[in-house]
């Protein structure tokens, strides 16, 4: 919700100014999807100190005509709030403007200000007020279905929760609810969220938490899921008001969570534009299926026109297979078509992991069930998004990968030696002596006794299916 405080020297002046502002917004009703719901609160100068800071404060003409130093008082009481001064005909001269600028006024509202101009002012001032938000909103998108958006969204969320962050995954696939179903986040259709989007309940911290299903807590970290609402004809309409309710919900999540990951596979129209306008990061998944190449070019071009100046889009190649397009060809073609640079790409592709295919419906994610190389790739992507520090990420995962590799190699070596020993007497051969490379001294024992970092123990995984024959040879 966008909070606008109206301050003036009299109750009558405050009420008149609130009525004027509401009339200006009513005349631009068709454009209000870009803003959350707006709450006007008239306050006196004495009451201002007893209320939470607002997003925008409009100072009435009575204060401007009277004692200008009171404008400085408002600035001291609201150091982070954008200030707008409503001027009258007699106070719209340049000398008054110069004094107001010195006292900290960010913009002015003139008697002849048109509704569209007032809306532009509110958009810019509200945007300035939101720049210091604590949380991060990360969207996961792709050009077509089946490229791994749901899988990667859940995996990144769990990885951040394991880093001690408060994380929420937001499922917006209203048709299949895959993310909610795979994580076992019941109920799969969110009636509480529906009430908030339809404005039948106020968007408060308490009501937003009722939309969330807590999956697990681990120390300071936590992971929750917000299931989607049932799809209806008004959901993606620009005139329904759903997008404004969504903005208010995202603001509450932004203030209470470290990261919000959104699977926007089912979003479109006004809802999709709303997500992109407020996103901090966009993870765009590129597959090596030739049929997804044009769809990716078209989608990325549209996305870049909707993102704010501070937002960033990062491309990652997911699930590369030998039958698809090569990584070099994909990168070259997309760079040429869209003017991308290496900075737009995640350095490590997301590898295929047969064990990770068990995650749908398991309540866990790819990050828990997949291979160590897959976890390294996801951590590399999170480091590229500046969500976790890169040095710590590289050190921890190189050690974890080394432990898993040694365990798998030893297990496969034991099977090879056993098979060779059984077949040796039949051929009159001596028992073979299999020599495996020894791990660095002290490192294996140290790692084997260190606390596990995965949500699923290593012995529960099918390690034989994860080792490549190329490693043994």
Would you mind describing this structure in some detail?
- By secondary structure, the chain is an alpha/beta fold.
- It has three domains: 2-129, Response regulator (Rossmann fold, 3-Layer(aba) Sandwich), CATH 3.40.50; 136-345, Rossmann fold; 405-472, no CATH class.
- 42% of the residues lie in helices and 14% in strands.
- The strands form two sheets. A seven-stranded mixed beta sheet has the order 8-9-7-10-6-11-12, with helices on both faces. It has a five-stranded parallel beta sheet with strand order 2-1-3-4-5.
- α12 links the parallel β11 and β12 (312-317).
- α15 runs antiparallel to α16 (390-427).
- The longest helix is centred in the last third of the chain and has 38 residues, at 390-427.
- The termini are far apart.
